[in-house]
Amino acid sequence: MKLLIFILIFIFVHPQCYANEIENKIAFGLKRGWKYSIAVVNEKNGKVLFQYHANQKLVPASNQKLITLFQSLKYLGADYQPSMTVLHTGKILNGVLYGDLIIQGNGAIVFTGRYSSDNFKERQNNLAQSVQPLIKLLKQAGIKQIDGKIKAVSGNIANTNTRYVSAVGLLFNENTVETNVENGKLETIPQNQKAVCFKYHRGSLPQKRVSVRKRHIIRDCISIDLNRDSQDYWRIENYNNNVFFINQISGYLRQNHIGIFKKHYPKTDIHFIGSLSGLTIKQMAKAILGFSDNLRAEMLYLYLLHNGKYRLLKRLGAKDGSGLSHLNSLNAFQLVGALRAMSVSWPWVQNCMAKPQKEGTLQHRYLNISGLYAKTGTLDGVISLSGFLEGQNRYIFSILINQVDSKLLARNNIGNILKCIKNNCK
User: Fold this and answer.
1) Could you give the C-alpha distances from 163 to 172, 181, 322, in angstroms and in order?
2) In principle, which of 35, 171, 265, 340 could form an S-S bond with 148, CB 3.0–4.6 Å?
3) 284 phi, psi to nearest 5 deg
4) 3-state secondary structure of 305
5) Helix, strand, coil share of the chain (percent; to 5)
6) Looking at domain 16-78+282-424, which of 3.40.1190.20, 3.30.870.10, 3.40.640.10, 3.40.710.10 is its CATH number?
7) Largest distance between two CA atoms of the chain
8) Phi, psi of 423 (to 5 degrees)
């Protein structure tokens, strides 16, 4: 009798997950032809509490970013920090550079105001402030005027992702034009740029991008509704990124009283002026996980390629760093494995993730599920969510759904699965 009581107490105190309840939620999607890969593990000991086709590889959408970040932390380190190199040709005499200024990007994110503030004006100012180290470097070198031209080269980072052409060696505000419409007026970050043109209208037409050609130059043209207050951002896709970079740097140098006269100088020896440190991987993580920033994820992918990790990425089936490709394939066990490894070695990663009611891509989703820290993923036919969940214990989970015919229903389905995990797993 005592043995029977002990067994009953053990079963009551130590269940894993009530699988039937979760499987009932999955059955909803299976009837619609959805494919699932799901895994739930105990964060502390790694014990598998529930799994459904957890080894089945599916398209992960932006959950690919978790693997990109994990491999970057593992092989490059949280403090990995590309640097921009500043060089010159010719001679510097009496404050004048009689030659060209050369900036080698190397994929470093140096000049940016992105994610620095929720306030548009502050981001404008922060972008301008990010150029100040370059101004200081030039003045320390005795350069107050550039008689030649500004030349820009990508350096040791080359773009290999045709799906995301903004991710290159040269970055200015991460090759993005941000827009803010308020009281019928438009402001942009950067303030002075030629890469994007705007067509204004007052009505219900949606904001959208169209490509226009003028004098053999292709630009992105954005249709803007001036009747509706809004904030948005647009990646540079058609305009030459090098030209965009040079135009922006030239404008900010002139604002800081460094003249540029664009005279032609013959090629001569190249001299080193200095270097400018970009963002570390740790500094990039919050935008990648919390706000699902594609460009920063693609830059991590390029950093890995530059550091000889091509075979690693190929073995993982990673076609890009951001998850934009339908050719990426991962399973739930791979994702929970990466998350658990990061929770042990880099515990700050959890706080970089989106949170319901607070910030990021989950700010307006799963509002009734507390203790959720997760990375969202969305593509045509794909909805995914992987991360951490606090319930009776702390869980790491991954839910991948493919062949989805309704994103809203799929998200609701994930929400119901999360409630089952939170309430029934120990």
Assistant:
1) 19, 29, 10
2) 265
3) -85, -20
4) helix
5) 35, 30, 35
6) 3.40.710.10
7) 98
8) -90, -25
Our measurement of the distance from residue 41's CA atom to the centroid of its chain's CA atoms, rounded to an integer in Å, reads: 26
Instruction: Give ∠ CA 13-19-25 in degrees, rounded to 5.
Output: 135
Residue 291 to residues 157, 184, 361, 403: CA-CA distances in angstroms?
24, 28, 6, 24
In one-letter notation, the amino acid at residue 214 is K
65 and 322 Cβ atoms separated by less than 8 Å: yes
Residue at 163: amino acid letter: R
pLDDT tens, the chain, 426 aa long:
433 332 222 233 334 566 788 999 999 999 999 999 999 999 999 999 999 999 999 999 999 999 999 999 999 999 999 999 999 999 999 999 999 999 999 999 999 999 999 999 999 999 999 999 999 999 999 999 999 999 999 988 876 667 788 899 999 999 999 999 999 899 999 988 777 788 776 665 566 676 666 555 667 788 888 888 989 998 988 888 889 999 999 999 999 999 999 999 998 899 999 999 999 999 999 999 999 999 999 999 999 999 999 889 888 889 999 999 999 999 999 999 999 999 999 999 999 999 998 889 999 999 999 999 999 999 999 999 999 999 888 999 999 999 999 999 999 999 999 999 988 776
Whole-angstrom distance, CA of residue 1 vs CA of residue 16: 25
The domain locations on the chain are 16-78+282-424, 83-279
- Residue 317: Cβ within 10 Å count: 15
Strand, coil or helix: 214: strand
Two structure tokens written together for 182: 């308020």
CA–CA distance, 200 with 179 (Å, rounded to integer): 13
Contact 302, 278 (CB under 8 A): no
Token digits for 135?
């101004």
Q: Give the dihedral sign, CA 193/194/199/200.
A: positive
Q: Is the peptide bond before 206 cis (omega within 30 degrees of 0)?
A: no
Query: Which residues sit opposite 79 in a β-bridge?
Result: none
Produce one character per residue of 78-109: b if its CB has 16 or more CB atoms within 10 Å, e if not.
bebbbbbbbbbbbebeeebbbbbbbbbbbbbb
